[in-house]
Amino acid sequence: xxxxxxxxxxxxxxxxxxxxxxxxxxxxxxxxxxxxxxxxxxxxxxxxxxxxxxxxxxxxxxxxxxxxxxxxxxxxxxxxxxxxxxxxxxxxxxxxxxxxxxxxxxxxxxxxxxxxxxxxxxxxxxxxxxxxxxxxxxxxxxxxxxxxxxxxxxxxxxxxxxxxxxxxxxxxxxxxxxxxxxxxxxxxxxxxxxxxxxxxxxxxxxxxxxxxxxxxxxxxxxxxxxxxxxxxxxxxxxxxxxxxxxxxxxxxxxxxxxxxxxxxxxxxxxxxxxxxxxxxxxxxxxxxxxxxxxxxxxxxxxxxxxxxxxxxxxxxxx
Length: 318
Fold this sequence. Notes:
Layout: H1 2-12, H2 20-23, H3 25-35, H4 52-62, H5 64-80, E1 85-91, E2 96-100, H6 106-112, H7 122-125, H8 129-136, E3 140-143, E4 156-163, E5 169-177, H9 186-208, E6 213-216, E7 229-232, E8 237-241, H10 243-249, H11 253-258, E9 260-261, H12 269-283, H13 288-295, H14 299-308
Antiparallel strand pairs: 1-2, 1-5, 3-4, 4-5, 6-7, 7-8, 8-9
Helix pairs in contact: 5-9, 12-13, 13-14
């Protein structure tokens, strides 16, 4: 009880310390919870839960992104499940619509509300991985006592936003644990979540534009959770762009509708694409299959691009 009381006092202190929100994203979120959402850090009620029909509607809302996520949810869970983590895929309202977890941990996670249909928006649950990630639209980790509600300070959550093929926020990908001792592997978990989110977005993007040529753009590092990709039709006009590509090229829906020539007809595109492919190969340790997954391509497609870019003779790739 003393620990939870101290946590509640820390949360409430951001109202007295006007500088704290400017210095700390967590403090800024706590202030939003207090002043905008009017939440009580000592509220003990469990998260709200959708009805069956509401949950089905939430799943339908994700559309192709939900289908594109299935294999990647399995792969991500294989990487983190033994550490006592569960994997959640949510919609844009912070509601998990799909989940992976160990059967032996299910009862614990259900008590915490880390289950399909629970509402984890920041407005409902205060500062938490899912809700705050959706609010800020960036990859983040909310670790234990960084949560707003005292009942959630045993959780650690690492989350990446997910954007649809139109560059709009569609949901989030979360890895959560209620076990202590994960501080030392937060970076590894964040990398795994980010890579899985990129693969999900890339697959959903390709499936939205099945007949298009996919152009890879050089990465700036500003949008780690999104791969900069364009979909180009047979007339070399851009018909689709991921979130990262829209930010990099300052694209809008209106600009795409007006007819935008593909930038891969510019003189320096091969160099940019070569850099993007080499970066993915480097991240994958030279493994072509793994690099293709990071780029959202099939192994055969990436191999053809490597051949065109004169990268196949490099023995470090396999």
